[in-house]
Design a protein that fits this description.
The complex is a heterodimer of chains A (145) and B (144).
Chain A lengths: L17 E2 L2 H10 L19 H13 L11 E10 L8 E14 L2 E12 L4 E12 L3 H5 L1
Antiparallel strand pairs in A: 1-3, 2-5, 3-4, 4-5
Chain B lengths: L22 E5 L1 H11 L9 H6 L9 H16 L5 E7 L12 E13 L2 E10 L2 E2 L4 E6 L2
Antiparallel strand pairs in B: 1-3, 2-6, 3-4, 4-5, 4-6
Classes of the chains: A alpha+beta (145), B alpha+beta (144).
């Protein structure tokens, strides 16, 4: 069964524990060309969009969920938001728990809004990473193959 | 890409309409590969011209998340402390096509769109080749 509005509310298991490391924060900041000193050292904070690294691990569960039948080559990233109580910090041990918030069908595409809740092992909510993906339906001839 | 400039802004100094300094970031294919490695997003649309053409794109395109991160950086460079960011949101409206040799230039402009106590909201625009490549990107910082 392909993805449909009925899949709203589907929640996945938390991801494996992700440990925010000084090396990864530094690598991510360098990839943005950003040499801000706040991103360096053992007490560094992570850049504001860094939670995407953790959220992306949770997205994998949805993209590979056989019930949804998503084709990655037909998925594009439509919208993105982060709501954070604080920045992720080096040393944080976190997991991401993904929920499908909403599925809308518009024309020949499904708009899938997901929320990854990132929290520490101690139970502190840190960040909500909301992503909307646009999943195009296959062309008619592809479906007949 | 340019390096950070030290700047600090307080909530008292900012008012609705205050403009951020404009900045232009030159992106190359190497930047996309570096971001792919750092973020874990290895979608071939960000490094293979043939793959991009096969799905109807004009060429290799930058990660939307890279463009968004650079838009947020325009704000963190301005406020000085990146750990103050509480909310950021955008829509990916047009691809940033990064030529293999010439790269691409993305220009960021922004202004304060709301002030509420210690919280400032800055709205950033990202333009490449005269086309807005992101919807208005809202970045909310808490300077308290």
């Amino acid at each position: 069964m392909p993805i449909s509005p009925e899949h709203a509310g589907r929640r996945y298991q938390p991801t494996d524990v992700y440990v925010v490391s000084q090396a990864k924060v530094g690598e991510f900041a360098r990839a943005l060309g950003d040499d801000h000193p706040a991103y360096r050292g053992p007490r560094a904070c992570a850049p504001p969009t860094f939670p995407i690294v953790v959220a992306a691990q949770a997205w994998e569960q949805m993209f590979h969920d056989p019930d949804l039948g998503l084709a990655l080559e037909r998925v594009v990233h439509g919208e993105q938001s982060f709501e954070s109580r604080r920045a992720l910090m080096v040393g944080d041990e976190v997991t991401a728990t993904l929920t499908i918030e909403k599925v809308r069908t518009r024309g020949s595409a499904d708009w899938i809004t997901s929320v990854a809740e990132i929290g520490t092992l101690e139970g502190e909510d840190v960040s909500r990473v909301r992503a909307t993906f646009v999943h195009s339906h296959p062309h008619q001839e592809e479906e007949c193959r | 890409m340019p390096v950070s400039t030290a700047a600090t802004v307080t909530a008292e100094q900012a008012e609705v309409g205050t403009e951020l300094p404009a900045s232009t970031v030159h992106l190359t294919r190497a930047d996309l590969i570096r971001y792919a490695g750092a973020s874990g997003d290895f979608n071939p649309i960000h490094w293979s011209d043939r793959f991009a053409a096969a799905i109807g794109m004009p060429g290799v395109v930058a990660h939307g998340m890279l463009t968004m991160a650079l838009a947020v950086r325009a704000v963190t460079d301005w406020v000085g402390d990146p750990s103050t960011v509480r909310v950021c949101s955008t829509r990916f409206t047009r691809p940033v096509v990064v030529d293999e040799l010439d790269g691409a230039d993305v220009t960021f402009t922004g202004s304060v769109s709301a002030v509420e106590g210690t919280r400032l909201t800055v709205t950033v625009q990202a333009v490449c080749e005269d086309v807005k490549v992101l919807g208005p990107t809202r970045v909310e910082v808490d300077l308290g």
